[in-house]
Write a structure and sequence with these properties.
Bound molecules: flavin mononucleotide
Structural class: alpha/beta
CATH superfamily: Flavodoxin domain
Number of helices: 4
CATH class: Alpha Beta
Keywords: Electron transport, Flavoprotein, FMN, Transport
Domain Flavodoxin-like: 4-140
Shape: globular
Family: Belongs to the flavodoxin family.
Order of helices and strands: EHEEHEHEEH
Number of domains: 1
Distance between the termini: 8 Å
Strand content: 15-25%
Cofactor: FMN
Helix content: 25-40%
Protein name: Flavodoxin
Oligomer: single chain
Length: 140
């Protein structure tokens, strides 16, 4: 059985709702899943999981949230080589630039992106919910 971590930051609950759907998808596919906030995760926990889903909304000016998520993620970057991961997050008025930048960072770190990243405009609609569940399944 694969062990999967869903690690997220969310200010107003949209990315949290996505994280819960990712977890549901992975559980339905038979994985053991831990859902953790950014402050509950770090590089020292990476080896305990077969795959990790990272979720963070667009913050700052098309950036990762900089007080909790970005420091945690930077910490994990040294452990991303060959690691199966997937990215998700909610955004507001932008065009998804934060996610494209984030994907490039992960590829440069040698991460194996299991599927297309999932973006939701504000609260996830039915399509985004289904995509989050499929993301969770893709990590199994
Ligand atoms: C301080 C701040 C900065 C933001 N910056 C961006 C941005 O650069 N691009 C964008 O598309 N949305 C931006 N947003 C909108 C959020 O990404 C959006 O509301 C998202 O749904 C929040 O997700 P959450 O509920 O998981 O916190 C920003 C929101 C806040 C509060």
């Amino acid at each position: 059985m694969s062990k999967i971590a869903v690690v997220y930051w969310s200010g107003t609950g949209n990315t949290e709702a996505m994280a819960n759907e990712v977890a549901e998808g992975a559980k339905a596919a038979g994985a053991e899943v831990d859902v953790l906030t950014a402050s509950e995760f770090g590089a020292d926990k990476m080896d305990a999981y077969d795959a990790v889903a990272f979720g963070c909304p667009a913050m700052g000016a098309e950036e990762l949230e900089d007080s909790e998520f970005e420091p945690m993620f930077s910490d994990c970057e040294g452990k991303l080589g060959g690691k199966k991961i997937a990215l998700f997050g909610s955004y507001g008025w932008g065009d998804g630039e934060w996610m494209r930048t984030w994907e490039e960072t992960c590829k440069a770190d040698g991460a194996v992106l299991a599927c297309e990243s999932v973006l939701a405009n504000e609260a996830p609609d039915d399509e985004a919910v289904a995509a989050c569940q499929a993301l969770g399944k893709a990590l199994c």
